[in-house]
Structures are given as C-alpha cells and as structure tokens.
Amino acid sequence: MARNKIALVGAGNIGGTLAHLVGLKELGDVVLFDIVDGMPQGKSLDIAESSPVDMFDADFKGTSDYKDIAGADVVIVTAGIARKPGMSRDDLIGINTKVMTQVGQGIKEHAPNAFVIVITNPLDAMVWVMQQATGFDPKKVVGMAGVLDSARFRHFLAEEFKVSVKDVTAFVLGGHGDTMVPSIRYSTVAGIPVPDLIKMGWTTQEKIDQIVQRTRDGGAEIVALLKTGSAFYAPAASAIAMAESYLKDQKRVMPVAAYLSGEYGVDGIYVGVPVVLGAGGVERIVEINLDESEKANFDKSVTAVRGLVDAAKGML
Ligand code: APR
C-alpha cells in the first residue's frame, strides 16, 4: 500500500514541528509548503537527514508550489501570522482571513479529497473561512483547538494531583479564546470526576478555579515567555493526534472545532465540541448535557465566535 501523503501549509514553528512528528510517527510522506523561498526546502532536508538516526521511512519535500500538494490525504494549515506579546488571537483576523482564502483555493484545486485541519488563529473563524474557500463537506474541514486546550488543562490537573497525565481526562468546549469553557464536571482522574476529587480533599475549588483560568490563558502564558511568537510543540502534537485518528480510522472522541448544524442550539458556524473523528472526518457530534452555568458560558463563547465570523465575512 502506498504511504499516506500529508501536506503542511505553513512551514514555520508549528509546520516544522508537524513535519518532524509525522516522520517520527511514520504517518506518511510530507510536503512542507511555505511562501518563504528556501525555508520549507531547508527544514525538509534537515528532517530527512534525521531519519536514518531515528530510523523512520518517509519522503520530505519542501515547496512553494501548490501543485506539489496534489493528492494529499490530509492538509494541516498553519499559514499566516502568529501573535506577539500584547496581541490577542483576534488581532490576527485581517491578515489571516486573506491567507486562509488563498490557501483554501490552493487546496480546493490540488487536494480536493483531503481532510483539512486548520490551526491558524483566530481558529474558529479561520476554519469557517477555510470551509467557505474550499467548499468541502464541513465534516472534512475541522479546527484544532480543543485537543490543545484540554491537553493544557490535563497537564495542570496532573501537576495539581501529582498523578500521571495518562490518567487525567479533560474537556474544553467553546471557542479557542478567552471565553473557552473548561468543563470541571467532565474532567476526571481515572474516571473520578474533579468535583468528587474536591469532596475527597485532593484539591480545593479555589485551586481548580485557578487552573481553569490558567488553561484559558494558556496560549498567552507561552506568548509572554517566548516574546517572539506563540506555542508550537503542544499545538503540533494535538493536530497530529487528530490526523492520526482520521488516517487510521481510530474513531477517537476529541474536542475539535466542528461545523454545527443545530447541535448545541448553534447553526452555521464552527465551535469547539466533542466529536468522533474517523475515516469519515467528523463522524458524530457528541452532544453532552451542560448545566446552567456551563450553558451560559458556552453561549457567551459562541457569541464571541459569531462576532469573529461576522468580521471575517466582512473582509471576504
Ligand atoms: N501561504 C503559505 N504560508 C504562509 C502564507 C501564505 N499565504 N502567509 C504566511 N505563511 C507562512 C509564513 O511564511 C510562516 O512561515 O506561515 C508560517 C507561519 O509560521 P510562524 O510564523 O512560525 O507561526 P506558527 O507559530 O507556526 O503559528 C501559525 O498557528 O497557532 C496559530 O496563532 C498561530 O496563526 C498562527 C499559526
């Protein structure tokens, strides 16, 4: 069987990390695309030269020509600009809407059967622009945010409880912004919900509230430390988990920015919700029960996403 082909549009910090992870995990051959001449070629060659050491078989090609993404099974998009200290994700909307339109046309023309994962911010609006630009079935166009936000939440919870991250599950719903909704009720240690762990004396409500806020500010915390760009290791790892679930039909249940058609009372936009991700793309949207306060926070987040989508619409 031929190897899968994975096209990475945007070969910056996240794009380069994605290419390396695809190689290490032997998910397929990689096409690394960027508008900067030489950079995708240089990163591709560098990663290919690491393959004899790490013992993986994959082809790497750097390019600035959309023809090279032809026949890609998965396209992961990080093209655009990343934020600098003091900027919110929403500040990127002007430039990145234009970039998504351009990239979407390239994907539509050369990789019409691809499963598309968008990482570019502001995420929920950019994945909407990508779906519009490609005209693809919304089940085949998703945004990566929830896996990252819940990974941050899981990391902080594991640190607090002093247990393995492997035994911590967590859910973050809503938009990928300040209004995201980390759910305490649906977060567990080996199946024990966090509210029960508070009752068991493992932590306090106050500490959990701090962790929820740190999760919401997770991206900004990294931006403030790095000063020259935004997070890239955890975002890349998160998108790879989604690509793997699609390529291997794993049917993993993951929070992703998915197109909603009435689910959660939302229609016609992308918002972070749990889904089943398999060979059909988004195979099922999981409608979990939200209590009053979760619902109010989710609705607030949806309103923020709608505002961004309207702003992007105005720029198209
Ligand atoms: N087509 C292709 N690539 C482009 C285009 C375009 N029209 N415009 C910009 N790029 C490339 C840049 O040349 C750069 O190499 O996108 C790359 C982005 O890389 P970085 O600046 O290193 O940003 P990164 O950290 O990878 O983040 C990318 O993901 O998480 C989001 O907020 C983040 O929107 C940002 C994106």
TrEMBL record:
Q: Name one GO biological process term.
A: lactate metabolic process
Q: Name one Pfam family in it.
A: Ldh_1_N
Q: Does the record's keyword annotation contain Cytoplasm? A: no
User: Where do the annotations place substrate binding?
Assistant: R83, R89, N121, R152
EC top class named in words:
oxidoreductase
Catalytic machinery residues: H176
Q: What InterPro entries does its record include?
A: L-lactate/malate_DH, Lactate/malate_DH_C, Lactate/malate_DH_N, Lactate_DH/Glyco_Ohase_4_C, Malate_DH_type3, NAD(P)-bd_dom_sf
Q: Name one GO molecular function term.
A: L-lactate dehydrogenase (NAD+) activity
**Residue intervals of the Lactate/malate dehydrogenase C-terminal domain:** 148-304
List the SUPFAM superfamilies: LDH C-terminal domain-like, NAD(P)-binding Rossmann-fold domains
For the keyword NAD, the answer is: yes
Q: What residues does the Lactate/malate dehydrogenase N-terminal domain cover?
A: 5-143
Which Enzyme Commission numbers does its entry carry? 1.1.1.37
Catalytic activity as recorded in UniProt = (S)-malate + NAD(+) = oxaloacetate + NADH + H(+)
- List the NCBIfam families hit by this protein, alphabetically: MalateDH_bact, PRK06223.1
What is this protein's function?
Catalyzes the reversible oxidation of malate to oxaloacetate.
This chain belongs to the protein called: Malate dehydrogenase
Which organism does this sequence originate in?
Answer: Thalassospira alkalitolerans
Q: What is the lineage of its organism?
A: Bacteria, Pseudomonadati, Pseudomonadota, Alphaproteobacteria, Rhodospirillales
